[in-house]
Design goal:
The protein has about 300 residues and is of the alpha/beta class. It is about 45% helix and about 5% strand. Strands 1-2-6-5 form a four-stranded mixed β-sheet, with helices on one face. A two-stranded antiparallel sheet has the order 3-4. α4 packs across α6, α4 crosses α7 and α7 runs antiparallel to α9.
């Protein structure tokens, strides 16, 4: 991946230097493809309307916050200018997502609000509560920040056999995809709906959210390469490999020896690869409507 000459983002908050700790992939936020469109009734239609609004019917959706903070954010003094290559890399990737999503939102008559990327080690406080490195990278809609312990990349490379800088970039782009969902109001609507349906249907909604974030990550890669030629030979394969490596079926098989689709929270390896590829192929937001797809 060509990143060394890229712009560095000003939206990186470095909170490293606290307690240490290794990384293990999350289990509590993963889920299922069990419930399909037919079993969800009007849920898919509601979210489809949200996406239609983004595509030009009502750009005011882009100016709305969709969630309310669930708790106070820990106040810490951020460090700046850490200077190590990995933090430099994620700063460049974040800046590239900013450039891409600003352009896409501008085309639709909206305004993109840039998220902050928080680097931490061991554990961190956010407006969504406290989290440890074991949670893995996550996005908190309440404070519009992406959180990552960079030790995650070591595990991605060594434990899950998904090496490469573009694999690492995919992780950031996926979390930024959740930020885009938040700006569109999709995240807030889905959160409300999850409280009104069965556990199986709530799991299915979460899978749809995660797969859409994968598709949005693909959209970033498509437009970033089109504008700035960031991709090198083998990069796409790295991204697809990373998407497959953290599919629910592989995770369950690795940790418990068998697969329970109803317990999925992010989608199977095949689903994650397919939706990342969907966004990457055409860069079309309409193609990322996982909520109305006939097949996830």
């Amino acid at each position: 991946m060509r990143w060394q000459l890229g712009r560095r983002s000003q939206n990186v908050e470095d909170r490293r230097g606290g307690s240490g700790g290794g990384f293990s992939m999350p289990g509590g936020m993963r889920m299922s493809r069990g419930a399909r469109r037919g079993g969800l009734g009007g849920i898919g239609l509601i979210v489809f309307v949200l996406i239609a609004m983004f595509l030009g019917v009502d750009p005011s959706m882009l100016f709305q916050d969709s969630t309310v903070a669930t708790g106070p954010e820990t106040i810490e003094t951020p460090r700046s200018g850490a200077g190590d290559e990995l933090s430099d890399f994620v700063s460049v990737v974040l800046a590239d997502t900013e450039d891409t999503w600003h352009e896409l939102f501008d085309r639709m008559g909206g305004r993109y609000r840039e998220p902050t990327l928080v680097l931490f080690s061991g554990q961190v406080g956010s407006a969504c509560g406290y989290a440890s490195a074991a949670t893995g990278p996550f996005y908190c809609p309440a404070d519009q920040k992406v959180y990552i312990d960079l030790g995650f990349y070591r595990d991605l490379r060594e434990r899950f056999r998904a090496p490469g800088d573009f694999a690492q970039a995919y992780v950031i782009a996926h979390e930024v995809g959740h930020h885009v969902q938040n700006l569109l109001g999709i995240a807030g609507e889905v959160q409300k709906l999850r409280g009104q349906v069965s556990e199986t249907e709530a799991n299915a909604l979460s899978v749809m959210m995660e797969l859409q974030a994968d598709c949005f990550a693909g959209i970033w890669a498509h437009h970033a390469h089109e504008a700035r030629q960031i991709l090198e030979e083998g990069d796409v394969e790295e991204g697809l490999n990373a998407a497959a490596a953290i599919g629910d079926d592989r995770m369950q098989r690795r940790t418990q020896g068998y697969v329970v689709p109803d317990a999925f929270t992010h989608g199977s390896s095949e689903q994650r690869v397919r939706w990342f590829r969907e966004g990457l192929a055409g860069g079309d937001l309409e193609a990322c409507n996982t909520f109305e797809a006939e097949r996830l």
